[in-house]
Amino acid sequence: MSGPRIVVLAGGVGAARFLQGVLSLVAHTDVTVIGNVGDDVVFGGLHVSPDLDTVLYTLTDAIDEERGWGVRDDTSRALERSRALGFDPWFWLGDLDIGLHLARTAWLAEGSTLSDVTSRFAQAMGLRARLIPCTDDRLRTVIQTMDGEIDFQEYFVKRGHRDEVHGVRFDGAAGTSPAPGVLEALQGAAAILLAPSNPLISIAPILAVPGIREALEQRVVRCVAVSPIVAGAALRGPAADMLRSLGHDVSPLGVVDLYAGLIDAVVIDDADAQLAAAIEARGVSVVVADTIMRSAEARRNLAHAALQAAGIAERT
Ligand code: FO1
User: Fold this and answer.
1) Structure pTM?
2) Average pLDDT of the chain, as a whole number
3) Distance of CA 227 to the CA centre of its chain
C-alpha cells in the first residue's frame, strides 16, 4: 500500500543521513530524492557524482560512515598505482568506488542519461527509494575567489575549501532542464523537504535548474527545510564561512532568508531555539529539535520532526 509521497531535495552527507531517518519512518517507495549534480567532476576521465553516490551508498548501507562519503572498507590500489606512475590523485577514489564510476562513464559515453545510469545503480544496489539527479544536463558549481573562478571539487578538495568565497555560479544552469520525473514528483508530492544541506552549494544548484524553483514557489503542499547551521556553525563543510563571506546571517535565520518564498516551516536545533520568534515573524513556522544526527535514533527523530512540520503522519 502506498502512502503520502515525499520529495526530498538533497545534497551529500547531511542529506543522506537525514534520508536514513526518513526511510525509517515511511515506505521507501513513497520517497523521491532529487539530488545535486553541481559538484560532479570528471577526474582521471571518470565521471564522479559525489552527492548522488553519497545518497546511494548511505541508503544501501555501503557508505564509509566515518568519512561520510565513499565505500566502507574500500582500498586504494588503483590510486597508489597511478601515483607511482607520476599522476597526482588529489581526488581520492577507492577501488570499489572506481568500479561504479567506470560503469557510469561508459554508459554515459554510450548515450545513457545520468538519470538512467542512476536508476540502474539504484536497482542493482537495492535502493527502493527513487533517486533522480536534478538534471541530466551539464551543470557545474563554480566558486569565485580572489584567485578567480575555481571548479567546485578543486575548491573543496584540492584547496581544502580555504579560499574566501566571493560568489557562487552554476555554470550551464540556464540551459538545463529538470531530469524526467523531477517536476512530476514535485507536483505529485504530499510534502517537500529540503534536507540539512548547504543552501548555497547543495540546494541552490538544484533550484537553479529552470522549472524547479518555480515548482516549489507554486507548491500546494507544505515545504519544510532542515537547517544545516547550528549555533553559528555548520555541522560539516564550509557552509558557515560561505554564508558569512557572502553576507548572509550565519544562523537558521540566514538559511530561512535564502529559502524565502519556498518554505512553510523550518526545523532548527535546540541550540537555536531563541531564534524561533524572529523566524516566525517572517511567516515561516518553526519546529525545534535535535538536528545533530549522531545515531540512527537521532536521524529518525529529526525526520519525524520534519515530517510532522510538513503535516505528514507516518505509517510506522
Ligand atoms: N572529499 C574530500 O575531502 N576528499 C576527497 O578526496 C574526496 C573524494 C571523493 C570521491 C568520491 C565521492 O563521492 C566523494 C568524495 N569526496 C571527497 C567528498 C566530496 O567532495 C564532497 O562530499 C561533496 O562533493 C560535497 O557535497
Assistant:
1) 0.97
2) 96
3) 13
